[in-house]
Amino acid sequence: MNFDPSHSKRSFSSVGTRPIRPDGVDKVTGRARYGADFNMPGQLVGRILRSPHAHANIRKIDTSKAAQLPGVKAVLTAADLPDLTDGDAAMYDILDNCMARKKALYDGHAVAAVAAIDARTAKQALKLIEVEYELLPHVTDVDQAFAPDAPLINDTIFTTGVDPKPDRPSNVLMRSQFGHGDVDAGMASADFVVERTFKTEQTHQGYIEPHACVASVSSDGTADLWVCTQGHFVYRQHCAQLLGMDASKLRVTSSEIGGGFGGKTHVWAEPVALALSRKVGRPVKLVMTRDEVFRASGPTSATSIDVKIGALKDGTIIAADATLRYSCGPYAGAWAEIGAMTAFACYKLENVRTVGYEVLVNRPKTAAYRAPSAPMAAFAVESAIDELAKKVGMNPIDFRIRNAAQEGTKASYGPVYGPIGIGPTLEAVKNHPHMKAPLGKNQGRGMACGFWFNFGGQTCTDLNIGKDGTVSLAVGTVDVGGSRASLSLVAAEELGIDYSQVRTVIADTSSLGYNDMTDGSRGTFSSSMATISAARNAIKILRERAAQMWDIPVEDVTWEKGHAVAKGETHGNLPKLSLKEIAAASGTTGGPIAGHSEIVADGAGVSFATHICDIEVDPETGATKVLRYTVVQDAGKAVHPTYVEGQYQGGAAQGIGWALNEEYIYGKDGRLQNAGFLDYRIPVCSDLPMIDTQILEIPNPNHPYGVRGVGETSIVPPLAAVANAVSNAVGVRMLHIPMSPPRILAALDA
Amino acid sequence: MMAGIAVSTNINSDNAEFLCHADETLLDVLRDRLGLMGAKEGCGTGDCGACSIILDDRLVCSCLVLGAEAEGGRIETVEGMAQGDQLHPLQQKFLEHAALQCGICTPGFLIAAKDLLAKNPDPTEEEIRFGLAGNLCRCTGYDKIVRAVQDAAGVMRGADHEF
User: Are residues A115 and A24 in the same domain?
Assistant: First the structure.
């Protein structure tokens, strides 16, 4: 969307303040309704049967005993769903992941479902479904799956992006490459080179709310879906397309969402719940257990990454090279491609090359997780950069400042940067008191940088002015962490009224035009852009109505601080009209007053952060304790600074968990061994210190207020910042994430 | 099929009676039979604390308690914290400090913090962190939660009545 740059705003009255969020009271009193907090009359309970095998042909499913159990109203297998075998490949994969058609491709893959009168009957029914499996060789490790002799997951996969085309299938779906310059010549001229291979394990987004939905399909084909999702419009489109429904007949309402972090951008059980409801003619509620959440939803890629970076004596990075292998689960993905794009995005490089390989494994289908793919690439690159700085003889921060990308730098993934924040975050870190604080025995300090693209996307907003002059704002981007407060602030700012006069709601799919998901840090960026545009459209009408009330030309009416003001010598003495007064008269001046906006929110400003971590390592046990942590990140313009800080702190905490403890552990049998919060341990309150934040504001020139997305970048630097801290504490370079006590002890013994 | 056990309890100062199966959790009873949906099921195994309630002055995961065990018991849930439109200081401070993002863990944290402050009205940061270590939050990194509890503890110590 293009807007007149002269309409950019740099001084604010509402934006930048910190009011209490409009959905807050409901959330502290237990009134807020999440995915599992909704029920419909006559509702049945849905449950899904999942494969215990990592890789198996499904020879036969006998559901007859389950169907005969009293209280069971429907049993469903892939045979009851549309066969998309010859249709769109991406849609086939989505549906096959929801319900396996021919093969079970991972431990936890859905193979059948039931709807019954209550949960205990549904659970009992699952035990009566007989599935005959033919076990196949499996592979769950990304490096083993990459090897030429690996068990084959899909014999129709021939690696794309390589020349010549391979003559036999493999688990390597696609090769992608980015960069510019002559990397080999640059590397040959380097005075110092660091070459390392790094590995990261698979993690889960770990949202506390399991996936949950209530589906109701009527016999006339109209349907309702209540669901916790990051994108109800996308869920509608996918469910309708998968099940052969008209999108307009399916109304999807997004519940309050109990965390998503990318994991609720994909449909899992929702098409199954709709299909069950359609089959039985009653509403069906389907809520995943935590075990199912771990085994069948999420997770991020496991990776294996080779990095080689060369520098000259003066500290200039002369060449940078990386090869990145990312696991996709058993279906197509482009995760290594994103890793390859982000790996060196923080730096100004003459010669840079990154190659990504998408690798199929018998694990759950990889899903987006907060700045998907970037943290692992940053771990590898920022670890190698730290080592290289030492070789060159510079401190890691000056080495990074010397090589940081600037406005006008051609990014390693192609585009030329506008005004960016990597340099300022580094300078802020250099001058931060944290960097000068003393360290004790067995303690180390690490720092690292991170980048994320940010995204804009399709966005639609309605701003309706009530007869009493208060404002209803309907947006279509799901609120994952306070965006209703931010968007109310933006509407108040633009209209010149108080924050308390605006109520923002997330509209359902039948009440508003299409919106992309809340992903790519786009929620506040894109919906604030649309809100500003909608408010400006409303102000145009407010000015027209005031002109009509005064009987003067509209050109002589301006909008100032919530009032229409008549200007010029002839009208200067007219008393100004408030928004309330104009709204009260709207019935006789042309009817309801509203502003709408339907845009593609182009121009999401790229985002950079630099983090500092202090850690203590117990050399006897390998246990670690994060002592101090600081986040510095560019927000463009922080609309609600408290929620911006929250995004910085939350991303850092997730990254710390990833760095130190979280990982999917598979047995030789291909089964997930830690599908629960006891054994997949995310950081708890006593694991972390306070997380200090510093918000920088380098305005995004493409947004009227300078806003950049802030949600994701904060998870990019922590893996490397923590690894650099541990490496400095123990004097050994850490190459494998997470740095759990056994891995630290092994590194110390090596 | 109807092998219900009759149970009498007191929930948030009101008497409550219900029938439940012998294997039904108190969490399911609260949510599915009594319509009290403030307690959430995050794991069903006592690892996340989202279903925290206070049963006879003891902080418990209601997913690990059977409904039948609540016979004669006194239950406090998040729904009972505010008095009319007067929020409990913990609720108020959670809002002011933005100690929630998605909010799914918030009822459990509020109950756990209420229990902590009842036993230790002036906790150190470390005591708060260990006192709340049974509750998982994936959004906030806990910083603002700890500050909210510290702030609320101060308000409650200075008040002339008990909360």
Answer: no
